[in-house]
From TrEMBL:
Belongs to the steroid 5-alpha reductase family. It comes from Ephemerocybe angulata. It is found in: Membrane. InterPro entries: 3-oxo-5_a-steroid_4-DH_C (IPR001104), SRD5A/TECR (IPR039357). One of its GO terms (biological process) is very long-chain fatty acid biosynthetic process. The lineage of its organism: Eukaryota, Fungi, Dikarya, Basidiomycota, Agaricomycotina. Keywords: Lipid biosynthesis, Lipid metabolism, Membrane, Oxidoreductase, Transmembrane, Transmembrane helix. Residues 155-312 form the 3-oxo-5-alpha-steroid 4-dehydrogenase C-terminal domain. This is 3-oxo-5-alpha-steroid 4-dehydrogenase C-terminal domain-containing protein. It comes from the Eukaryota. The chain crosses the membrane at residues 241-261, 267-286. One of its GO terms (cellular component) is membrane. It is a multi-pass membrane protein.
């Protein structure tokens, strides 16, 4: 057994005011096991709230990392810091909360137009198609969260759920629903009659492209799931459908599906959502693409782009 010092990286939380403390660890102990010892010392300091770092460093140490490797095998006199990350919530719960917003908001606007627009009216074929697309998309996302996705991180700060939900509840929920299901796009409205929005062939082609994007997105999620065995954080280079061109075809197909809705409606609300979603996912893709190349080095395909084939 070796004793190492654990101090507070910032102000010690009220339930761990005895920091710094000495913790005895066995040879081969991991950061995760150290967290468990800290939790036993301070029961309210759950392992999910703890961020363990080297003294003076901000980069968190992975739970699977052996403590002795952090210090080159010399544990005597070693010191690590712990920071309280605040109340946590599981990623799965966050996703479920995010995606349920549009599933509630869109039916309210669609089925109760008199409440929002002062009168009832007949929905156009366009509105019916968009409503079906949105509901099926977010139902798919909920089911994927429950039965497909495997998360590399168990939790995230609780307050992030509000920030993350804004994108879905407000932009693809409230903003999109209020505009697309308005009388402007109702059956018989000038924006519909005699335009491509009322063309049966156009709507069928749009449906085919949208369905292609959704099925392709689902396929890439299955590929990513199969890369990570249950209960592990294993990472591997994805390959196959979509991945041969870009690192994150799931984002590309997601964007394609929303672009279809944007083209169908030519709604400023849908255009705005597509722009925000594209910029957001492109930023995620570029960051993760860089991490892939750094992690796998020469093994990672050099010609592969981040999100848009042959472009970005």
């Amino acid at each position: 057994m070796v004793s190492i010092t654990v101090s507070a990286a910032a102000k010690a939380p009220s339930f761990a005011r005895d920091l710094p403390i000495s913790v005895e660890v066995e040879e081969g102990s991991t950061i995760g096991e150290l967290k468990q010892k800290i939790n036993r010392k301070f029961p309210k300091f759950s392992t999910s709230r703890q961020k363990i770092t080297l003294k003076g460093d901000r980069k968190p140490l992975d739970d699977a990392t052996k403590i002795e490797t952090v210090f080159g095998g010399k544990l005597e006199g070693a010191e690590l810091q712990v920071k309280d990350m605040g109340p946590q919530i599981s990623w799965k719960t966050v996703f479920l909360i995010e995606y349920v917003g549009p599933l509630i908001v869109h039916p309210i606007f669609y089925y109760f137009p008199k409440v929002f627009y002062g009168r009832d009216f007949q929905h156009s074929a366009l509105q019916k198609y968009v409503f079906a697309f949105v509901m099926l998309h977010f139902l798919k996302r909920e089911l994927e969260t429950l039965f497909v996705h495997r998360f590399s991180h168990g939790t995230m700060p609780f307050l992030n759920v509000f920030k993350n939900s804004f994108h879905y509840h407000v932009l693809s929920g409230l903003l999109l629903a209020a505009h697309v299901y308005s009388p402007k796009y109702a059956a018989g409205a000038p924006a519909i009659v005699g335009t491509y929005r009322d063309n049966a062939t156009f709507l069928k082609v749009a449906t085919a492209v949208w369905a292609f994007a959704e099925v392709s997105n689902f396929h890439t999620h299955l590929t990513l799931r199969n890369l990570r065995p249950a209960g592990t954080k294993k990472r591997a280079i994805p390959a196959g459908y979509g991945f041969n061109l870009v690192s994150f075809p799931n984002y590309f197909f997601e964007i394609l599906g929303w672009v279809v809705i944007s083209v169908m409606t030519n709604s400023i609300a849908s255009h705005f959502f597509v722009v925000v979603a594209t910029v957001t996912m492109a930023a995620w893709a570029l960051k993760k693409h860089k991490n892939y190349k750094k992690e796998f080095g020469k093994e990672y395909p050099r010609s592969r782009k981040a999100i848009f084939p042959f472009i970005l």
